[in-house]
Specification:
- This protein is of the alpha/beta class.
- The protein is 47% helix and 14% strand.
- A hairpin with a 2-residue loop joins β3 and β4.
- Strands 1, 2, 3, 4, 5, 6, 7, 8, 9, 10 and 11 form an eleven-stranded mixed beta sheet that branches.
- The protein is globular.
- The structure holds pseudouridine-5'-monophosphate and manganese (II) ion.
- Pseudouridine-5'-monophosphate is lined by residues 25, 27-28, 32, 88, 105-106, 124-125, 127, 140-142, 159, 260, 263, 267.
Length: 303
Amino acid sequence: MEQYIEFSQEVTTAKQQGKPIVALESTIISHGMPYPQNVKMAKTVEDIIRKEGAIPATIAIIDGKIKIGLEEDELELLASSSEVIKVSRRDLAETIATNRIGATTVASTMICAELAGIQFFVTGGIGGVHQGVEHTMDISADLEELAQTNVTVICSGAKSILDLPKTMEYLETKGVPVIGYQTAELPAFFTRESGIKLNSTAADVHSIANICHTKNTLKLSGGIVVANPVPTEHALDKDYINNIISQAVKQAEEQGVTGKDSTPFLLKYIVEQTNGKSLETNIKLVENNAFVGAQIAVAFNKL
Ligand code: PSU
Ligand code: MN
C-alpha cells in the first residue's frame, strides 16, 4: 500500500517528531471556491494550523499517488487546473490508477487521512442528505464514510442546500457523534443556528480530545463530527442566504444537475448570487475551523 502514499517533507518530519497533524481536503479548493481566493484560503488555513502548534496536511491525488501534504505548486495546480477530478470513495482507485489529478472530498480525505495515521481533519462543511432525496436518492458518500472511518471532522455543520434534519437522522442511525463546539445547536454553515438541537456540546477543546481518546480506546469504529459555528461577525442573515439557497436548489432541478455535479453546481450558484459575500463567510468559517481543529489535535497529542 505504501507505494501509493507520498508524504511531504513537512509531514514526514512531523510524523518522526510525533507532532500533531491536521488533514485538509482539496475538493473545497478545486470545486468549492473560485480561483484565486481558493489557493489563498488554502495557504492561510495551513498557516493558522502551524501557528496553533500543529502541522497541516492537505490531501490530493497527483501522479498516481495519494499526497499527504502539498507543495505550493501542487496547491496552485489544484486551485487553477480544469483537469482536476472530484474524487470521492468511488473514484479513488481509478484516479490513482489512471494517473489523473484528483481533489479529495470529505469522504476520500477521511480514507486517506486514516491510511496516513492522521485522526483530525478540518473543512468547511460536510456533504449529507440532499433536499428532494425522496425523488433523487442523493445522499453524500461523506455520511457512509463518517459511519466507518475513524477520523474527527471539524466543520461548521452543513449548508442548507442539504436537508439538515434528515442528515442528522442519518448520522444518528449510523452512530456518528455530532458534538457542538460551544453550541447546543447544529450550525448551518453560513449561519450559527439551524433550529436543530444537538445531543452533545463541548465547552472546550480538551473535552473533545478526551471523547476522541475514549472512542479510540473502546475501539468504536466511525468518525466524529465537531460542529463549530461561523464567528458571529461573519455570519450571514438567515432569510437572505436561505432564499438564495432555495433558488440554487430550484435551478439545479430545472437544469437536471445530478450526481457528483450537484454540490459544486449549488456552491457556485450561491457564490455568484451573493456577489461573493458567501465566499467571504465560507473562508472565515474554514479559518476558524482550522484554529479550533489544530487546538483539538494539540490537546489530543498531549493525552
Ligand atoms: N460543502 C461545502 N463545500 C464543499 C463541499 C461540500 O460547503 O466544498 C464539498 C466537500 O468536498 C464534500 C463534497 O465532501 O463537496 C460533497 O460532495 P457530494 O455531495 O457530491 O458527496
Ligand atoms: Mn450526491
